[in-house]
């Protein structure tokens, strides 16, 4: 079945959705990416090979052939993605339209009335969740709002045709006049709802100072890890004063070394310098502090480390900061996780 709405083509069978500006091609093979680019542009195979070669060289071979091909696709304005029509909450992103979701009702909030264009309108909202997270569902449709009267916590809702937008750094699902709601569809259950704060996922090119968000991409450059001294009791950073380390709370202490590492991270829309401290640095490098100390004194070990780390695909939660000296944005990692390739494939960019 094919539906065209708002210029977005949807194929339910193969679940290929083209949304305005979507550019992720991570789950396609190199050959598939090439054939998509050739199909959608007038460029010749030779020109394309050349562009990819140049891109690989520009990035000092830090990215894979697939990665280079997907950056070239982006530059040529080829926008494509493969995502299923029914999504898990973690994969629903602002800008997505015609989203389908099956979720459990966690809370039902009071329906509000307001006047719009001289007409009395209502807006209802409920908190829904599935195995991957929770999100607020906002309903503007009168029939759906009426249907909510019989809704209880623990009920299952199946929604088709919703859209997702950002509200104060959180994603929200909106249910408009063209959406469909089924309460307690037969045979659908959700056992364990993952309740955690869902950070908004953003493109690196869209980041703003103070954003607290999640980004997904690839490590493309790594700087030599460093370390600094902290108080072993409270973990606060301490500075040497004539050879003594003094914690404001714990007095003179024998400091503990903790690691710090800077790297560049690319998601094909842009790249950003990221700093990771302590456990996050150890996690990224897959090294203990002692091993990191050895790397600091051995260029050979650092070269070997780079080979291991460059190209790693990660999901990073953290905060965007502005580096005034270089007039650029940077990112402080609060949590680093390996990205599941399926998740990368489904990460939609509006
Ligand atoms: Zn202390």
Quick gist of this model?
With 350 residues, this protein is α+β, with helices and mostly antiparallel strands.
Write the layout of secondary structure elements.
Blueprint: E1 2-5, E2 8-11, E3 16-18, H1 30-40, H2 45-58, H3 65-75, E4 99-108, E5 112-116, E6 119-130, E7 133-139, H4 142-147, E8 156-167, E9 170-175, E10 180-183, E11 200-201, E12 212-222, E13 226-230, E14 240-241, E15 244-247, E16 251-253, E17 256-266, E18 271-277, H5 278-285, H6 289-296, H7 299-309, E19 313-323, E20 328-338, H8 341-346
Parallel strand pairs: 7-9, 11-12, 18-20
Antiparallel strand pairs: 1-2, 2-3, 4-6, 4-8, 5-6, 6-7, 8-9, 8-10, 12-17, 12-19, 13-17, 14-15, 15-16, 17-18, 19-20
Helix pairs in contact: 1-3, 2-3
The structure holds zinc ion (ZN).
The site of zinc ion has 7 residues, from loops.
Strand content: 35-45%
- SSE succession: EEEHHHEEEEHEEEEEEEEEEEHHHEEH
Coarse morphology: globular
**What percent of the residues sit in helical stretches (DSSP H or I)?**
10-25%
Give the termini separation.
Answer: 24 Å
Query: So how many helices?
Result: 8
């Amino acid at each position: 079945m094919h539906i065209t709405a708002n210029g977005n083509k949807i194929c339910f069978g193969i679940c290929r959705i083209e949304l305005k500006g979507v550019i992720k091609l991570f789950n396609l093979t190199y050959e598939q990416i090439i054939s998509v680019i050739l199909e959608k542009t007038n460029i010749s195979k030779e020109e394309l090979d050349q562009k990819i070669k140049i891109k690989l060289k520009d990035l000092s071979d830090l990215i894979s052939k697939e990665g280079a091909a997907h950056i070239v696709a982006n530059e040529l304005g080829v926008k494509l993605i493969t995502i299923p029509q029914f999504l898990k909450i973690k994969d629903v992103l602002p800008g997505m339209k015609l989203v389908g979701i099956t979720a459990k009702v966690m809370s039902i909030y009071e329906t509000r009335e307001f006047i719009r264009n001289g007409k009395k309108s209502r807006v209802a909202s409920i908190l829904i969740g599935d195995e991957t997270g929770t999100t607020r569902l906002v309903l503007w449709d009168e029939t759906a709002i009426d249907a909510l009267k019989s809704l209880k916590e623990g009920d299952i809702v199946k929604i088709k045709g919703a859209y997702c937008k950002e509200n104060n750094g959180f994603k929200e699902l909106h249910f408009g006049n063209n959406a469909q709601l089924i309460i307690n569809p037969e045979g659908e259950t959700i056992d364990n709802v993952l309740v955690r704060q869902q950070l908004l996922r953003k493109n690196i090119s869209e980041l703003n100072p103070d954003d607290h968000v999640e980004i997904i991409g690839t490590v493309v450059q790594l700087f030599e890890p460093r370390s600094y001294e902290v108080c072993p009791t409270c973990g606060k950073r301490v500075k040497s004063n004539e050879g003594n380390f003094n914690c404001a709370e714990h007095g003179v202490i024998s400091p503990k070394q903790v690691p710090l590492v800077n790297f560049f991270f690319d998601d094909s829309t842009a790249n950003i310098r990221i700093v990771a401290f302590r456990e996050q640095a150890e996690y990224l490098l897959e090294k203990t502090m002692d091993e990191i100390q050895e790397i600091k004194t051995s260029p050979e070990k650092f070269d070997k480390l780079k080979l291991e780390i460059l190209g790693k695909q990660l999901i990073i939660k953290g905060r965007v900061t502005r580096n005034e000296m270089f007039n650029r944005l940077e990112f402080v990692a609060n949590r680093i996780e390996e990205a599941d390739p399926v998740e990368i494939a489904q990460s939609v960019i509006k």
